Amino acid sequence: MTEIDAYNEALKSGQYQKPGGLLGKYDNVRRFWEDEELGLYLRPYLERLVARRKERGERLRMLDLGCGSGDSFEFITSISSQSLISKHNTKVIEPDMVEVYKGIDINEGLLRQAQAIYGGRQNMVFVRSDFNDYDFSSEEPYDLYLANYGTLCHNTDEQTVELLSNIAKHSKDGALIMVDWLGRFSYEWQTLWTKDVEHNQWMDYVISYIYSDSGGKEQPLTHFPLRIMGRQEVLHIYRQAKRKAGGIITLRKLADRSSFVGRHMDTAQYNPHCQPLRRLVNSLFEPDLCTNLDEVLVVYVPRDGFAEVNAYHQRLADCWNYLVTYTKALLEGSKLPEALTEMPQPLSRALSAMKGAVTAAARMKIGNPRASLVEPQLGYCLRELEMGLQRGWGCGHGLVAVFEVVK
Ligand SMILES: C[S@@+](CC[C@H](N)C(=O)[O-])C[C@H]1O[C@@H](n2cnc3c(N)ncnc32)[C@H](O)[C@@H]1O
C-alpha cells in the first residue's frame, strides 16, 4: 500500500518523532497552533462529556482510529480547562479519568513507535488492524472516538459513512467523535481548487514537508491519494451516516484549521504563490528567536472564478496583516496603521491582547521579552484570528468535525 510506504519513509527520516521546535512533525505550529486549536474546538463538548461521566462515577474510554504513534493520547489529555492565570494548569481529562485508550493502525512501524512511547502504561493498548474492518461491536462502547490529522482522508465516502454510523450505533449517549479531513480550498493547494467536486475528490499527497528546507526535493518520495473535503461534502456524508444510524448522530462543530500555516505553505508544492509562513510562525513561537515581522505579512494571490473562497482568504489575510503591522508599530513606537474599513471583533480582541503584551514586555528587563513574550503572543493571536473568522468551508489545511451521539 502506498500510504504505508510513505509513512515508513517519513519515519526513517528521523523527523517524524519528538521533539520539535522549528522543524519536523512536532514543530511549534503543530503544538501551539494545530493541537491547541483542535483542543479548543473540542473543549466545550469534552467538558460536558467529562462532567456527565464524572457524575455517574465513570471514566473515559477512548478509541483512536489510525492512531499512528499514539499522538492523540497526548493531544487529548493536554487540553486545558479554562483557568485563571493564578491557577495551576488544569486539564479537562485528568490522568485518573482515563479508563482505557485503544489505538488502531495498519502501520506496524508507527505502532512500534507508539509502543515504545506508551507501551508501559496498563490502560493503553495498540492493535494492528484496518479500522474499517475492526469489529468493535464486541467491545464495550467508547466515549471518545478520534481520527485526527487527516486519517479519514484515506477512506472512501462509503467507508466513512459506514464507520460513522457503526460508531454511533455502538456507543452510548453523549459519546463524541472527532475527525478531520484535508480542506478542499486550502491556499496551500490552490491549483487544485475546482467547481466539479464530484469528479475531483482526491489529491496526490506527499509528506515532503518534514525534510528540511528542500521540501524533500533531493529524494524520490511516495505519493498517495487523500480525500479533500469541503463543507457541503462533509454535510453530505453526515446526512448519510445519520440516516443509516437512525438519526442518533449530531454534527456539533465544523471548523477550519490552519489557514496560511499548513504544512505545504513552505513547500509551495501545490501553489507557487505560497510563502513559507509555517516556518515564520514556528519562529514566532520559538523562545529567544526574533522574527522579521515584514516576512510574516501574507500576500494573498486570488484565483479567478472562486469569489466566495477568495473573499474569505482575503479577509483573513487583511486582518492578519493588520495585526502584524499593528504589533510592529507598537514595538517600534511608530504610528499605528489606519483602521480597516471593517474591524471584525476577533481582530479587535487580538489587537487589545497585543497591546497588553507589548506594554508588559516593555517593563521587563530580563531575557528577550520581544522573542519570548511578544512574538509567541502574536502567534496565538493569529491563531485566535483564524478561529474567529473561519467559516468551516474547507479553507484551512484541515476541516474539523465534532459529532455527538444523542440517544
Ligand atoms: C495522517 S496519519 C494520522 C496519525 C494520527 N491520528 C495523528 O493524529 O498523528 C494517518 C494514520 O492513519 C493510518 N491509517 C490509514 N488508513 C487506515 C486504516 N484503514 N486502518 C487503520 N489505520 C489507517 C495510517 O497508517 C496513519 O498512521
- Multimeric state of these chains? single chain
- Biggest sheet overview: 9 strands, mixed
Rg on CA atoms, Å: 21 Å
Number of domains: 2
Helix content: 25-40%
CATH architectural grouping of the largest domain: 3-Layer(aba) Sandwich
Helix-strand pattern: HHEHEHEEHEEEHEHHHHE
> What is the residue-averaged pLDDT?
93
Tell me the span between the first and last alpha carbons: 38 Å
**CATH class type of the largest domain:** Alpha Beta
Question: Summarize this, please?
Answer:
The chain is an alpha/beta fold and 407 residues long. It contains 10 helices and 9 strands.
What features would you highlight for this structure?
407 residues, alpha/beta, Rossmann fold, 2 domains, 10 helices, globular, binds S-adenosylmethionine
